[in-house]
Design goal:
The chain is built from 23 helices and 20 strands. With about 725 residues, the protein is of the alpha/beta class. The strands form seven sheets. The protein has a five-stranded parallel β-sheet, with helices on both faces. A four-stranded mixed β-sheet has the order 1-3-6-2, sandwiched between helices. A three-stranded mixed β-sheet has the order 18-20-19. The radius of gyration is 39 Å and the shape is elongated. It is found in: Cell membrane.
Length: about 725
């Protein structure tokens, strides 16, 4: 499995089968068709940074049951090869991650990860040579090897998002699509509408500059010039580019490149004491060490750009500081770094301490690319955990070491997709309203799911609804039979009967939520629920006001109760119910809920709110009336027993509020048909609360304590 610098990894054709030689030949043909000749003909200056003499290219390696390959731009080629301390830190971060994974007994129990890391020299040709060497070596040495699945920590090119061309390419770094959009917004916000662009011949620069230029022009900007830095620029080419930059009227230059590719040009510009250029850097070099070098301050001061978020990896700094050279094979890169850092060979390592050095290698306060390397290593480890059946390991916690696998297995088939070809790198999405079977190899017609009258939950809710209707009917009959008694006549018996009728509607409207949603049930159910509850609360509001006014009249012989007679009470009920009726009517006429087959949770048939605020406005108005009722009833809760109905209303409103406050989070978090069940439960619970709190105490007096159902009894003058 390759964890690779993908400046070249995307050139490998994953569809080519066979051995390494056939793959290498296929890559050569691909490059030749693109006009890149002579894959094996590498510049002489490149060979010295990846191999010694005619031997195999150098590699930092450690054996393991599964070997992960890595390619890093340890050297970059300018006038002379330069050792990149930052890239060496990336390389050692991979080593740190692999060793950390090996120490974690729960991640890959019984499996040791190895690594083989090579230098790309930040060059396509040497990257290819390193890649072919990795394929040959890992296939011959590793017991498990997946040689065609690059996981990139640095390749941001938008071209790599094409899953048809690069089906098994993965990365832990965002695409340039987001960076380009941010850079365009940055330069246009600052009013820089006349800019130059500069890049290299690779896909990273090509696609990045192309996307930037297109979006920049759409925002009214103009590209003054574009400079392309050759792969191995000559001194004359460097001077020509420097001349063009100096002579251009555009003072803002947007650059998509790496620091190694820019070094020769920047050295030339610094030597000429060029100043006044506003550089806009891509993420590949915006945090580069050369930006902090005093030599480049006059030239690069004020450079702007976007970088990846910086993080701190626990334990990384201590690991990096303890790296030591060694004469053992496979430690050549570490020895190169040590000699580059201190200028002495490895046998003098005891005298030197990396803690006292200042370089991009030891600066790990806020790592960015290193974190992408770290995440990529763990992504591979977690994929291996699934592939080697580590999750289903027995009591001894061992993975299946010698299991073979292909690039098509770095992933899984999702909840509504199928994959019926072994080794396929892509899943096929099932048609709308179809679902994948248990094995996820074929699509089957989705079974419609809704809260049915026949299922257990539906039967229970229907039974509770009918119980509520029956109880309301019985209480209505009792009140009608004893309508001439004082306890029924008190506080306007007409309002009591209207309250009972509205409660019956509250119970019955819950039935509209059960069964397969239709056009009419979707339109009417929330409207019926909203209007029924508002009518119920309006009656309670009138009752509460009457209680308060009656007590006031009893104390001060006030005529206020006479002024709030039956006609005024009916008017208040109509006045408080009318806004809800208008709201529901407008909602249903403008954007009524419609039946909708939601494939998110199987095929759930539900009512889709075309205008979600409508439902919350209905709930909000109910809440407003309930709050007013609770407030007024609370004020009258300590009135003498003569007017104890205020206490009953207070208690019923507390239950009402408790139910509906609990409803909102439960409704939002419940999937599919369960959200409907939650709403029905809230309707039934609050309806039962009102019915039992308001009317059961009165029925108890009427039926069980008839001696108290006289005028003296309800005025408090009859002894208990």
């Amino acid at each position: 499995m390759f964890f690779a610098f993908t400046g070249v990894a995307h050139a490998v054709d994953d569809s080519v089968e066979g051995g390494v030689v056939e793959k290498e030949e296929a890559v050569k043909q691909t490059l030749n068709s693109l006009g890149i000749k002579g894959v094996s003909a590498v510049d002489p200056s490149l060979s010295q940074c990846v191999k010694l003499g005619d031997s195999e290219p150098l590699a930092l390696h450690s054996e393991g049951d599964v070997v992960i390959g890595g390619v890093f731009p340890l050297h970059y080629v300018a006038s002379n090869p330069h050792f990149d301390h930052r890239a060496f830190r990336w390389m050692m971060t991979m080593v740190f991650a692999v060793e950390e994974i090996n120490r974690n007994s729960s991640l890959l129990p019984g499996v040791k990860l190895g690594y083989r890391i090579m230098d790309s020299c930040d060059h396509v040709h040497t990257s290819l040579r390193a890649l072919f060497s990795l394929i040959r070596t890992t296939q011959s040495e590793s017991s498990s090897c997946l040689s065609d699945s690059p996981v990139s920590y640095f390749a941001t090119c938008t071209c790599l998002t094409d899953k048809h061309m690069y089906p098994s390419f993965l990365r832990t770094v965002p695409s340039d699509f987001f960076q380009v959009r941010g850079l365009v917004q940055l330069v246009t916000f600052l009013g820089w509408l006349w800019v130059g662009t500069m890049g290299t011949t690779d896909d990273y620069s090509h696609y990045g500059i192309q996307a930037f230029s297109n979006q920049f022009r759409q925002q009214g900007g103009c590209v003054a010039f574009h400079l392309t830095i050759p792969k191995s620029p000559t001194a004359a080419e460097i001077q020509e580019m420097a001349d063009e930059l100096q002579s251009s009227a555009a003072q803002v230059v947007v650059v998509f490149a790496t620091e190694g590719q820019l070094l020769d040009l920047l050295l030339e510009l610094a030597q000429r004491n060029v100043t006044g250029i506003q550089w806009v850097a891509s993420e590949a070099w915006v945090t580069a060490r050369l930006l902090t070098s005093p030599h480049f301050h006059p030239l690069l001061e004020g450079t702007l750009g976007f970088s990846f978020p910086g993080v701190k990896i626990p334990g990384l700094k201590e690991f990096l500081l303890n790296v030591r050279p060694s004469p053992k094979p496979g430690m050549e890169f570490v020895n190169m770094f040590w000699e580059e850092q201190f200028g002495y060979p490895q046998n003098n390592s005891v005298s030197f301490d990396l803690r006292y050095t200042d370089s991009s290698y030891t600066d790990v306060s806020q790592v960015r690319i290193s974190y992408n390397v770290y995440k990529a290593a763990y992504a591979i480890a977690h994929a291996l955990q699934t592939l080697l059946n580590c999750d289903s390991a027995g009591p001894n916690k061992k993975c299946t070491k010698h299991k073979s696998f292909t690039s098509g297995q770095v992933g899984e088939t999702k909840h509504g997709e199928i994959s019926n070809q072994t080794g396929s790198t892509e899943c096929t999405k099932c048609p709308e309203y179809y679902w994948s079977d248990k094995e996820k190899v074929k699509c089957v017609a989705g079974v419609e799911e809704f809260l049915s009258f026949r299922e257990t939950m539906g039967i229970i809710l229907v039974a509770l609804t009918l119980l509520g209707v029956v109880l309301t009917t019985i209480i209505t009959i009792v009140f009608y039979r004893f309508r001439s008694t004082p306890i029924v006549k008190a506080n306007n018996s007409e309002i009591s009967f209207l309250l009972l009728l509205s409660l019956k509607f509250c119970f019955l409207c819950s039935l509209m939520f059960i069964g397969r949603p239709s056009v009419w049930t979707c339109r009417l159910r929330n409207a019926a629920f909203g209007i029924s509850f508002v009518l119920c609360l309006s009656c309670l509001l009138v009752k509460t006001i009457v209680v308060l006014l009656a007590f006031r009249a009893n104390l001060s012989s006030s005529r206020s109760l006479k002024l709030f007679g039956p006609s005024q009470q009916r008017a208040l009920i109509l006045f408080t119910t009318a806004p809800q009726i208008c709201l529901c009517a407008g909602w249903l006429l403008a954007a009524p809920p419609v039946p909708f087959r939601n494939p998110t949770y199987q095929i759930v048939v539900e009512c889709k709110e075309l205008w979600p605020p409508g439902f919350y406005l209905v709930l909000g108005y109910i809440g407003l009336l309930a709050f007013v009722c609770l407030l007024l009833a609370f004020l009258g809760r300590k009135l003498p027993d003569t007017f104890n109905e205020a206490r009953l209303i207070t208690f019923s409103m507390l239950i009402f509020w408790a139910v509906w406050i609990s409803f909102i989070p439960a409704y939002v978090s419940s999937p599919g048909k369960f959200s409907v069940a939650v709403e029905i439960f809230a309707i039934l619970a609050s309806s039962f609360g009102l019915l039992l709190c308001i009317f059961v105490p009165k029925c108890y007096i009427i039926l069980m304590r008839p001696e108290r159902n006289i005028k003296k009894g309800i005025t408090g003058k009859y002894p208990r």
